[in-house]
Amino acid sequence: MNKKILVVDDEEGIRFLYKEEFEEEGYQVEVASSGEEAVSKLTDGLIVDIVLLDIKLSGMDGVDTLRQIKEKWCELPVILSTAYPHYKHEFGTWACDAYVVKSSDLNELKEIVRNTLEKK
């Protein structure tokens, strides 16, 4: 069975890129353009194996989204993916399972997703 990823990013280009790249790796990919949409999809019964979550989102930011996900689905791995490395040291990000700085090279992100799912 293919593992399913929920990509949460307010940039359409990132959602499209991650969806294409991870589908090529054999994953099923769902996307959400906001934290609210991601939490709503999960609340409505969307089952995923891992969440890739941007920190800088319009509306509810990634840290608040992370908190809501971990409160309701504590076993669901969440990887924060952001262009801003300084958030890694903020208390609100500590609940994530991994923290990745966005790069045009997705190999690190793919490896972290693979490793996180293997641990699950």
Give your account of this protein's structure.
Helix content is 38%, strand content 19%. By secondary structure, it is of the alpha/beta class. It has a single domain, classed as 3-Layer(aba) Sandwich (Rossmann fold). Strands 2-1-3-4-5 form a 5-stranded parallel β-sheet, sandwiched between helices. Strand 1 (4-8), helix 1 (12-24) and strand 2 form a beta-alpha-beta unit. The longest helix has 13 residues, at 12-24. The radius of gyration is 13 Å and the shape is globular. It starts with a strand and ends with a helix. The mean pLDDT is 92.
Characterize this entry briefly.
The chain is 38% helix and 19% strand. The chain has 120 residues and is of the alpha/beta class. Helix 2 (35-43) packs parallel to helix 3 (62-72).
**CATH homologous superfamily descriptor:** Response regulator
Arithmetic mean pLDDT: 92
CATH class label? Alpha Beta
Instruction: Characterize the quaternary organization of these chains.
Output: single chain
The low-confidence parts are none
Quickly give the CATH architecture. Answer: 3-Layer(aba) Sandwich
Q: Distance N terminus to C terminus? A: 15 Å
By secondary-structure content and strand pairing, the structural class works out as alpha/beta
Q: How big is the Rg? A: 13 Å
State the total count of DSSP E strands: 5
**How would you sum up the major sheet?**
5 strands, parallel
Q: Which strand-content bin applies to the residues?
A: 15-25%
Q: Helical region count?
A: 4
Which bin fits the share of residues in helices? 25-40%
What spatial form do the alpha-carbon principal axes imply?
globular
What is the CATH topology assignment?
Answer: Rossmann fold
Q: Tell me the series of helices and strands, N- to C-terminal.
A: EHEHEHEEH
Tally of domains: 1
Give the neighbour order of strands across the main sheet: 2-1-3-4-5
